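Fold these two proteins, one after the other.
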Amino acid sequence: MSARPLRVLHLSSLYPPHIVGGAERSVSMLAEAQAAAGWAVAAACLSPDTAHEEVRNGVRVFRMPHGNNFWLEDWPNHGQRAREWAKFKQQANFGIERRFGAVIDQFRPDIVNTHSLVDISTRVWHAAKRRGVPIVHTLRDFDLLCAASSMFRETGPCQHRHLKCQVLTFAKQFDQRLVSGVTAVGSEVLARHLQFGFFDHVPETQRRVIWNTARVEGVDDTYVRPPRTGPLTLGYLGRISPEKGVDVLLRAVRHLPASGWRLLIAGTAPGDLAPFQRLAEKLPVEFIGFQAPKQLFDQIDVLVAPSLWAEPLGRTVLEAYQAGVPVIGSRSGGIAEIIQDSDWLVEPGDVPGLAKRLQRLMAGERPGPPAGRARVMARTTPEAVAQGFAEIYATVLGPQSATARTRSAALAGQ
């Protein structure tokens, strides 16, 4: 008699169609790949209003009232003191613990896989632990270490945990001991947590780096990029904010010739866009607002990812590689882990270095697809990512788990 399907419950702050970043897209892609492989899969997330349940692409989705001082998208509307008090109180949100416990009781998972816990109290881990359900946590940001989730402040990347962050995240330091396995979307984000004493109790066999799935709507195995003519077109895709290095990029292009190039900046600014627009005055730079990745990739020759903070992975870089677009990126965090080729990497914040690399780009031939595309694609297919999680689930559940072995073997054969 065959083993029953493994039952996996994911938990993340948000889940589609509610999308504000890459984490919720990655979680949904993973959950849907597991459901397509025959698993019983559910996902729990926060809701700005009432509790409700639905099924999306084979995944049972539980939306839970958040129970915090305010909804996560409303943070910019509140002052610093109000935000800090909300973050501090959030650690003891017993309401979300009860609601998640009820979801566990209803779905009865074999394993809980938590993801981005921005605005979710780690009390949810207690709910799983009390019910004897093992927990795998996936590191997609620095939320456990940093109140801002980024390990970045106005003066640059944080080299240590500041006192305010230690206070506003103190419960997480204790609760992380409840986790049995940990995965990370990049090597540096895992190393950073281990450096500060998080997850050092987890055996090395139960720690793993698993990249996100890279999938661009409209780009498949038959996709061919439109021929590029005209001036060299650079692109930027993402949030327009200081930690993303957009001002560094704009200062760098000021060193380029007056013609023969243009820069398309796709994305929105969580704050004031005016400072960036002033840096772009009298330059062939266009702020084109929100764009689907393929819309931008079809128009550019090279993507620039100049982040100052150590991005855990860099979804836009993965997406560019899938579309065959080369990337100049910062030698930091997950961006450097993806690109690897030193000729396409510059030091974070190095305006002259980035300017020189762009000048070399203009002096050469129009670049072709990135050399490491096949390597990146092999690690980011839905099947490869799902297999990585199948293996760590099997390890956490133990060698005696016939269910884990059976489902892991089934995925490996796909």
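Now the second one:
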Amino acid sequence: MLKLIGVTKWFPRGSVEKVVALNNIDFTVNPSDFITIIGSNGAGKSTLLNLIAGVYCPDSGKIMFDNKDITRLAEYRRSMYIGRVYQDPMMGTASMMSVEENMAMAMLRGRRRGLGRGVNTKLREQFREALAPLGLGLENRLKHDVGTLSGGQRQTLAIVMATISKPALLLLDEHTASLDPKTGRTILELTEQVVKQGNITTLMVTHNMEQALRLGNRLIVMDAGDIIVDLQAEQKSRLTVSDLIEQFEHASGKRFVDDSLLLRRKGED
């Protein structure tokens, strides 16, 4: 489905110095993959998602999607088949627009938009059907501004918006990291449910090593712009966090010192 071929991205630092964010990455994503991605800060995880989404263009290399070269394709064009949920619940939704207006915009993402009414009776019923199973009462708040929702409700809406048009690929960039533990667990359960029901190919960046081992059928570890470990379902199902740290140290040639990947917030699974 998705293939990165020799992709490199660097960012300027100072007048002439450059920081390599991704270093000649070769990476293939197969249909129905649910890939968890971990790595320390600065490993290149978010840059990888941004390149796939079209936020950045690579400085070298090629990005293929369904055998089509999308390396220079604009972000809004890719949004027709790529959904994304960000770490910050305030991103990806418009505070001053209603729940139903946000969902209508999500359905039109990447498509031509006319000047007619954004929401009709048929769409409104479709939105209710999408929101009702979540048990948060959002189906009864369609006309409420999104800015009045809690962080968890807003992130729930963001997931529904990212998947309502049935994207071929879903990108999750630490989408539970800024939520309290209980809400984070709820959002993660919702994520698993939505991905499974829609059979959506998914890339999920996380800072939780236990989550990375438990979820999905594949796990990659990034370090300094490289993919240094790539584990399939059978391999990762046998590993503990300690085993994963050992694999990191063996592949990177350096000692694991990032406590943020080990420490879980109180009450977090």
